[in-house]
């Protein structure tokens, strides 16, 4: 027992070995003054700066840029009923002939979709009197003589003072119609304007309606948009049954534009579809800028399931129309 106590006392008197995870060569010093500031500045420089939109340059595009326009003036007529499209002129059909070909494809023995839509593909020349200026994109609503089931749920709000006109607007299908009281309800937030897709108005209520211009913005009723008239009931019917279309512009060739919009159903009668096309062409021609060249260059018929577009003879549908400038229309709307 005495020997055990002696050994324990010896161990307690011997130096202890201390183990540390730190390397004896490791040294830590404070960073130089301004190091953190320099790092923060570098982070700021790395932030991506949003550049303004610039038109695409042809030199930056990959491969050969193919023009969307098809020019076959120098080509000859096809000698047979089978030919290569790139080597000969494309045939131009009448509206009835082109529609008959489309109906053959959608016949019950083929696709069996007699209620499919018929689209009009209209090419535009967007050049103006200035070489560097082109017609901007536009969206319009045109009333057609023979409406069809477009499958959309549209909502219309009408503004007018006369109670008789309010009743006519409601009978025409407006979800809401009224005058000064309706404007006050919107200002108080009791009625939300975004719930309505179309806004139409009578000219006599425009002074009171100006207080809501900041809410409506582009939907503010105007002559250029076709949403301001004394026939409010007619405007409501046009918004509910009309054709709403938008023009598109090519990214590289800024002078090339097009409109692709439905005309009706294949099951409709041929004269009815043709009448709808005439109204659409007249409405597009109203956006023609001041210049001698034609605004509409080509009209084709197409369908959602087919990639082929049939060229039709459309020039007979347009007579002499006044040359209107889109800038002048905007000025008239602003004056209202």
Structure overview:
The chain has helices spanning 2-13, 35-45, 95-105, 163-172, 180-187, 206-209, 213-216, 232-241, 270-285, 326-335; strands spanning 117-125, 139-142, 156-159, 176-178, 198-201, 243-249, 256-265, 296-302, 310-311. The chain is an alpha+beta fold. This is Mitochondrial ribosomal protein L1. Belongs to the universal ribosomal protein uL1 family. It comes from Bemisia tabaci.
Characteristics:
336 residues; alpha+beta; six-stranded antiparallel sheet; 10 helices; 9 strands; disordered C terminus; Ribosomal_uL1_3-a/b-sand
Itemize the secondary structure elements and their pairings.
Layout: H1 2-13, H2 35-45, H3 95-105, E1 117-125, E2 139-142, E3 156-159, H4 163-172, E4 176-178, H5 180-187, E5 198-201, H6 206-209, H7 213-216, H8 232-241, E6 243-249, E7 256-265, H9 270-285, E8 296-302, E9 310-311, H10 326-335
Parallel strand pairs: 3-4, 3-5
Antiparallel strand pairs: 1-7, 1-8, 2-6, 6-7, 8-9
Helix-strand string = HHHEEEHEHEHHHEEHEEH
Mean pLDDT: 83
| Largest beta-sheet characterization | 6 strands, antiparallel
Structural class: alpha+beta
Helix fraction bin: 25-40%
Any low-confidence stretches, pLDDT <50, length ≥5?
320-336
Number of helices: 10
